[in-house]
Design brief:
Blueprint: E1 3-8, H1 13-24, E2 28-34, E3 50-51, H2 54-59, E4 65-68, H3 72-85, E5 88-91, H4 98-107, E6 113-115, H5 121-137, E7 142-149, H6 159-172, H7 176-179, E8 180-181, E9 196-202, E10 208-216, E11 219-227, H8 231-243, E12 252-253, H9 255-258
Parallel strand pairs: 1-2, 1-4, 2-3, 4-5, 5-6, 6-12, 7-9, 8-9
Antiparallel strand pairs: 7-10, 10-11
Helix pairs in contact: 1-8, 3-4, 5-6
């Protein structure tokens, strides 16, 4: 049976990629798209119902799955609308606040919601193996990270960088807000041992590069994940869209749950 997909932000770069890939997948049906009123005309190419009112569009696709890479505010509004309509909701939006994440978890008690700041299979496998690496290297190794994205990205550091940094901090028994350093300038003194540096670079059309450094006595380990195209994230989101309807409400699902 085909899974009906509703794409929000369908006129954007990620949204249009998801629409195209959903139409190319025989297990999926692009059932509807949502976009701001001034961008609706550009969605005629998808040959499916389109609208700017999420409640109205979601109600047209009972049993559907919303795939959402928009903005934190839009994704939260879509999550509430999806819960009201009883449709599943896959969210890849980054930059959510702690309060927004808490609201998603609350909505997920009675609705099927999946959220991941990075839909890449590779990144999520990395999240599983990093704790073992950090713990076996020990505390003599300093942990740093550099993330690089295109010049139109609005949040910094990226959601993926923050999740990777949380993973590193947890492996050391640290709380990330207590040890994260996002900026260095001037005479700052020696580097504290209980610190994770997270530096940001923006430019061009780079899809996403994250490099983790573990630097110890006489050696350095570098682990780099490079996203070559947005299809990587779209593929993960559509895989989640097939998986989520088979799950029960009650938890805010993630890529690690699906993997």
């Amino acid at each position: 049976m085909s899974t009906s997909i509703i794409v929000t932000g369908a006129g954007g770069r990620m949204g249009s990629t998801i629409c195209r890939m959903a139409q190319e997948d025989p297990a999926l049906t692009l059932a509807a798209v949502v976009e701001r009123p001034e961008r609706l005309a550009s969605l005629d190419v998808w040959k499916c119902p389109a609208g700017s009112d999420a409640d109205a569009v979601f109600a047209q696709v009972p049993g559907g799955v919303v795939v959402d890479f928009t903005s934190p505010e839009a994704s939260m509004a879509n999550a509430r609308a999806a819960a009201r309509a009883g449709v599943s909701h896959v969210i890849g939006t980054t930059g959510l606040t702690a309060e927004q994440k808490a609201e998603l978890a609350d909505l997920a008690r009675t609705a099927r919601i999946f959220w991941a700041p990075n839909m890449s299979i590779g990144v999520n496998v990395l999240l599983k193996i990093l704790p073992q690496l950090v713990q076996q290297l020990g505390e003599r190794y300093d942990l740093e990270m550099v993330e690089l994205h295109h010049n139109r990205k609005k949040d910094s550091p990226s959601g993926t960088a923050l999740r990777l940094a949380e993973c590193l901090a947890e492996a050391r028994g640290w709380n990330l807000p207590d040890v994260a350093n996002y900026h260095r300038e001037g005479i700052i003194g020696e580097r504290p041992k209980d610190e994770i540096g997270i530096q940001t670079i923006r430019g061009g059309d780079v899809v996403g590069v994250h490099t983790i450094y573990a630097m110890g006595p006489g050696e350095r380990i570098e682990i780099t994940h490079q996203a070559h195209s947005r299809e990587n994230f779209a593929q993960g989101a559509l895989r989640a869209a097939k998986w989520l309807p088979q799950q029960q409400p009650g938890t805010l699902y993630s890529m690690l749950d699906m993997l």
